[in-house]
Design goal:
Layout (H helix, E strand, L loop, with lengths): L3 E4 L3 H13 L3 E7 L6 H4 L3 E6 L10 H11 L3 E3 L9 H9 L3 E2 L4 H8 L1 H11 L6 E5 L4 H11 L3 E5 L8 E4 L5 H16 L4 E5 L4 E10 L5 E13 L2 E7 L6 H17 L4 E10 L4 E7 L6 H7 L5 H9 L16 E8 L1 E2 L5 E2 L2 E2 L2 E3 L6 E5 L6 E2 L6 E9 L2 H14 L1 E3 L5 H7 L3 H5 L6 H5 L11 H21 L12 H11 L12 E2 L2 E2 L1
Parallel strand pairs: 1-2, 1-4, 2-3, 4-5
Antiparallel strand pairs: 6-9, 7-8, 7-9, 10-11, 10-13, 11-12, 12-15, 13-14, 15-22, 16-17, 18-21, 19-23, 20-22, 24-25
Helix pairs in contact: 4-5, 16-17
């Protein structure tokens, strides 16, 4: 039985895994880079090991250092979270060679599913619908590509065979644009994945991005936990997810889940994973890919599936246990929505925003969950992705979930960096989103971020707070003892100092506003 888990990750997902481990009586080991030395996942772990400087290539992606950290601390299992090494078959091999249990799928399954072309072939053999296309084309084999493109038809997608994270993907609407797209996709794939091989795929549009959460044990059992709607995307990156989908009927759900189970069984899959599909307006769906790991958006599934703990299931499966008895497909109850809270400025083309978090206050209340790494005083490093946390709500209906999310977004206060909270609030006002009439291309083709407003009544309150902050700082400078004795500062003085220093940069409220350097 697993007794000590090293979490080969950082941020909110590391904290998420730690919570389940504590409930199960399992000790945890944190690994960290230099800029993460004061991170919450380090503070909350039973053991912590430094693995290198800030860049991921010198820390979180160094397999040998992570394996050595597990050896040093006596960890008998490793959970990879998502991103970093979570879908790296060599990492799974290294764990096995070191006698450490990997909490995730096997290396063989990862290799079979890691290449988009090999995965397409597996799915086709298993009877899972795939988008018509052409596999394994060299990025400079224009003759073959042009011949296959004529067969597939335009518009079509050029995709990197070894791609992921939205990289190496190009939309081609005219034959004369094919060669340029192949070069661009091949170059990006070569630099990102070391493999310039591409494939062509019919462009299904408009289409929804629908995914099915599965968990499989080592005894041949596979369970599908319903679908998630993930069509709100920018640059092929998800920004909001919900479960279930307004477009999925019980009959479509049954077919989707059956296809996802067949996909898992096609390669002897084990542990948690996600099977992704494109769903067209006629209710037909096509296999997209398998993510052989836990997904960022897994909380919405947990909330609509009776509070199931997917991390606990992952650990149970890694221990060799069978899945609990139950139907092969879990029917969702209620509605859950997740907003990804990113450090970026929606009023400046979503430019990254990092730095010191002066103050943070979480939303609370029934049906509200905030998975985050944030705390007042955290210095958000520049080396990693922009995700600061995930705000998730559950309610009995979609309409109530939307209202609950609106309230939770307004209650969320983050001072010190810009976030995309104003984007989410604007999204929840758009009639297309409210009706559920969206697709993967909807956000970039239809949605426009409204201009920042200066008439929010809370601006006056914030300006008063800024003046108060300046007064507190001035008083504190004259009489250090007034801040709490011995020159120390209370949380309120720290927050005030941060607000004044950063020109009153605050998050929260229903609409964005700016005045000088103040921004929401």
């Amino acid at each position: 039985m697993i007794k000590r888990v090293l979490i080969a990750n950082r941020g909110e997902i590391a904290l998420r895994i730690q919570r389940t481990c504590r409930e199960l009586g399992i000790e945890t080991v944190a690994v960290y880079s230099d800029p993460d030395r004061n991170a919450l996942h380090v503070r909350n772990a039973d053991f912590a090991v430094r693995i290198g400087p800030g860049p991921a290539l010198e820390s979180y992606l160094v397999i040998d250092r992570i394996i050595e950290a597990a050896r040093q601390t006596g960890a008998d299992a490793i959970h990879p979270g998502y991103g970093f090494l979570s879908e790296n078959a060599r990492f799974v091999d290294a764990c096995e060679e070191a006698g450490i249990t990997f909490i995730g799928p096997t290396a063989d399954a990862m290799r079979a599913l890691g290449g988009k072309v090999s995965a397409r072939r597996l799915m086709e053999a298993a009877g899972v619908p795939i988008v018509p296309g052409a596999n394994d084309i060299s990025a400079d084999d224009f003759a073959t590509a042009e011949r296959e493109a004529a067969r597939i038809g335009f518009p079509l997608m050029v995709k990197a065979s070894a791609g992921g994270g939205g990289r190496g993907i190009r939309l081609v609407e005219r034959p004369e644009d094919l060669q340029a797209a192949m070069r661009a996709s091949g170059n990006e794939a070569a630099s990102s994945f070391g493999d310039a091989t591409i494939f062509l795929e019919r462009y299904v549009s408009p289409a929804r991005h629908i995914e099915v959460q599965i968990v499989a044990d080592a005894h041949g059992n596979v369970r599908a936990f319903g679908e998630r709607e993930c069509s709100i995307q920018r640059r092929n990156q998800k920004l909001l997810e919900e479960a279930p989908s307004v477009a999925v009927t019980p009959e479509i759900r049954e077919r989707l889940c059956a296809a996802a189970i067949a996909a898992a069984k096609s390669c002897g899959y084990r542990n948690a994973g996600t099977v992704e599909f494109l769903l067209d307006r006629n209710g037909e769906f096509y296999f997209l890919e398998v993510n052989a790991r836990l997904q960022v958006e897994h909380p919405v599934t947990e909330l609509v599936c009776g509070g199931v703990d997917l991390v606990a299931l992952q650990i149970a499966v890694a221990n060799g246990e069978m899945l609990p008895e139950g139907p092969s497909t879990v029917t969702p109850t209620g509605w859950a929505i997740e907003c990804r809270i990113n450090g970026e400025d929606p009023y400046a083309n979503f430019a990254p925003s990092v730095g010191l978090i002066d103050f943070v206050d979480y939303p609370t209340g029934p049906g509200v969950r905030f998975d985050t790494m944030l705390y007042s005083g955290l210095d958000v490093p520049v080396f990693y992705d922009s995700l600061l946390g995930k705000l998730i709500v559950w309610a009995e209906t979609r309409d109530r979930a939307i209202e609950r999310m609106r309230r939770a977004l307004r209650d969320l206060v983050i001072s010190g960096v810009q976030t995309n909270v104003p984007f989410h609030l604007a999204l929840f006002e758009h009639p297309d989103f409210l009706s559920g009439d969206v697709s993967t291309g909807w956000l970039e083709s239809t949605f426009t971020m409204p201009a920042a407003s200066e008439d929010d009544p809370r601006l006056d309150v914030a300006l008063i707070a800024g003046a108060l902050a300046a007064q507190i700082i001035a008083t504190n400078a004259k009489d250090p003892a007034s801040s709490g004795g011995s020159g120390g500062m209370t949380r309120w003085v720290q927050s005030a100092r941060g607000i004044a220093r950063r020109g009153l940069r605050i998050e929260g409220g229903t609409s964005g506003w700016r005045r000088g350097t103040a921004s929401r």
